[in-house]
Write a structure and sequence with these properties.
about 140 residues; alpha/beta; Rossmann fold; 5-stranded parallel β-sheet; 5 helices; globular; Sig_transdc_resp-reg_receiver
Length: about 140
């Protein structure tokens, strides 16, 4: 099964190259050049992983991460940055990022993280579904 990935970065050349390389690995990749556009895509579609640039104009990766987690807590987000610091990494993880990766990202390592995101999301969605079924059964006294 193909992993569905949303790749978000304000650098169109980076997006094009990464998306092409990820598609070559049989991933279903959607791209976005802004956090606000990505939030619209996430509101209407489901992705196994969102790979998002930490520094973007308008809304940065941390703000976007928090907005996504508020509406779609099951979404697995990996932040990319060209200027990694321990403080940024800690901030990202506290905000709910699955991982924090420094550019240029090693595609083999990133692919493994995407597969883990896919599995983690599947477990979360299954648990949410079970909780909804139990809630409905209780509601009807079963």
């Amino acid at each position: 099964m193909k992993e569905r990935v949303l790749l978000v970065d304000d650098e169109p050349e980076f997006l094009e190259i990464m998306a092409e390389r990820m598609r070559a690995r049989d991933m279903d990749v959607t791209t976005s050049t802004s956090a606000s556009e990505a939030l619209k895509l996430i509101a209407t579609d489901s992705y196994d992983a969102v790979i998002m640039d930490f520094m973007m104009p308008g809304m940065d990766g941390i703000q976007a991460l928090k907005a996504v987690k508020e509406k779609r807590p099951e979404m697995q987000i990996i932040l990319l940055t060209g200027h990694a610091t321990v403080e940024k990494g800690v901030e990202a993880m506290k905000a709910g990022a699955m991982d924090f990766v420094e550019k240029p990202a090693d595609l083999d390592a990133l692919s493994e993280k995407i597969k883990k995101a896919h599995s983690k999301k599947a477990v979360i969605v299954q648990k949410q579904t079970q909780e909804k079924v139990i809630e409905v059964l209780r509601k009807f006294g079963m």
